[in-house]
Amino acid sequence: MRKLPHNFLLFTCMFVIPLFFCKKQVDFAKAVAHDHLPPLSLTVSSSSVALFQANAKLNTVRFDWGYNGSIVNDAVYYTIQFSLKEDQFENPLEVPLGSSLAAGFSVEEFNQLMHKLIEPGDAGDVAARIKYMRQVAYTQKVVSGDEVYYSDQVLLKVTTYRHIIAYSSPDFFTLPGNYQSWDPLLAPRIVSKPGEREYEGYVYFPIEYPQFLLVRGNQWSDFIFGYIGGNKFGVKGSSLSIFGGKGSYLIQASTNTNTWVYTKINSWSITGSAVQHNGKLDLTMTQDPSNNCIWHASVNLIEGDLFFRANNNNAIRFGNDWPAIDHVPDYNADPIRITRAGKYTIELDLSIAGNYLYHIHRNR
After folding, report:
1. What is the value of pTM for the model shown?
2. I need a surface site. Which of 2, 123, 169, 186 has the fewest CB within 10 A?
């Protein structure tokens, strides 16, 4: 059989292969060519959202969006963005929504989400909008266009709540004593995580020689524990005594060992790379005159980290475990990150045992 000349085969390949290559390129270009996506119109079920813990499981707010009658055939992916009104989406909070055209939140879900923008128990003006873009799949490749679109924004007045954990017996003691007329109904508490039997709380004693008993409940008919020698407590004991004078104390008790201990809190301060020390290691906070278990500071911070610590040492120190979005101080935890320099108002609230809270608010 006669063989084709090598020159002919080479010429044929040079001519045919580019045709296939060009055809594939043309098809690919055609596959990803689209018109601009039409505008979205975002609506919200209410422009004023007041959140309450008693309604935690109820639905609260719903966002809807559409294409004003237009039909979009491609897969479009949506993200709802939230921002404080004054920040104008400079660093927005984002919730991916896939291909949904609506998003609803329960009271509890929205409260937790808004805590990333608004301090617990505070109110703020929040802007919301939808970010959306097209994604096109082609031969196992995903092509993301450069076109990112945004809906118009809606404004909401949001009031959040501070989540309070309710501790039931046997996870709390009340501390009725001579500093508050021996009234167990009005006495401060120390609490334990369920099952741990290790109790603690911060208590302010306004007299020089405080005495109290540990009551497992809030009635004198409940189990009562007192001093039985050493650092021990037990039934039929005498009053437990504080010998450090009036002031704020960390009270700790254990029913695993039946021991108790107190530590006087002479000061709370903040320290860390975010604090401009002016030659001092700690910046001292001041006690709230209406509640001596709440501490305040007004300070210029720079980008960096900070801790809260008692008595200018690390024996009692608060940070915040990751992810640091709950505003709850955690013992010996990661530092609290400050991402923007500015003048800040800071509050450390230790007034409710088992429900400690801090606020770090950048002044506008």
Report:
1. 0.77
2. 2
